[in-house]
Every structure is written in structure tokens, then in C-alpha cells.
TrEMBL record:
Name of the protein: CKLF factor
Domain of life where this protein originates: Eukaryota
Occurrences of domain MARVEL (ranges): 5-125
Spans through the membrane: 12-31, 37-57, 69-93, 99-121
Protein's gene: Cklf
InterPro entries assigned to the protein according to its UniProt record, in alphabetical order: Marvel, MARVEL-CKLF_proteins
Keywords: Membrane, Transmembrane, Transmembrane helix
GO cellular component: membrane
Amino acid sequence: VDRAYPRSVRGLLKIARTLVALATLLCFVASKAHEAYAALAGMETVITVLFLLVYLLRLDRRMRCLFWPLADILNSVIAALFLLVVCLFAIIIRTNKGTLAGGVLGLILLVLCLADAVLLCKEISLNKARGRSAPAK
């Protein structure tokens, strides 16, 4: 278990994304909004928790078959696009206050997704060698 990850900027951002996605899901479910709204928020919650567990348990270092930061960036960008569309619809339609609150929280989640993607892009260097073939320092 990586005990430093939850205190890092990336870890705090993942935890914040998880909590905001869960709050968005609860708002959409409590307001009996369209199922697509709740499904998107639920999927984002589950996927973010899975990425949090991958990094927390250091599985990204054990399962080297996938470049995890790139998969995380793709998840963040795709989630941001879906959140933009769905949450704008939720805010525009606003059948009740719960749907409106879920839409606003979804837009906050969109900003967190984009911040996570930008942070990961800054940390990744595609020219840097990885694995056993990396030169010794």
C-alpha cells in the first residue's frame, strides 16, 4: 500500500473526484432524474474508485501491460466530455432542485476531471524510457 499517495496532489484530486461524483450521483438519484444522469455519475464514481485503488495498491507497477497514466488521462477527458453534455442538459431542463444541484456538482466534477488530466499530462514524459531498459543514473 502506498501510504503517501492519498496525501499527494494526485491522490487528493482522485479522492475529491470520487466524493463529488458520489454527491452528484446521490443528487440525481434522490431527485428521480433521468436514468442517464445517474448512470454517468455512477460510472464515474466506480471508475475513479478503481483508478484510486490501482494507484493506492501500486498495481500500476505490477501490471505493466497497460500504461496506466495514459488510460487515466483518456478516462478523464472522455468523462469530462460526457459530463459537459449531460450536466448542461440537467441544468437547462432542471425538473427540480435536485437535478439542478446534480448538474452543478457535475460541472464541478468536470473541472476536477480536466485538472486531473492536465496534472497527469505534466507528469508524463512519453520520451522517457520505462521498465528495465531505462539507463542507470
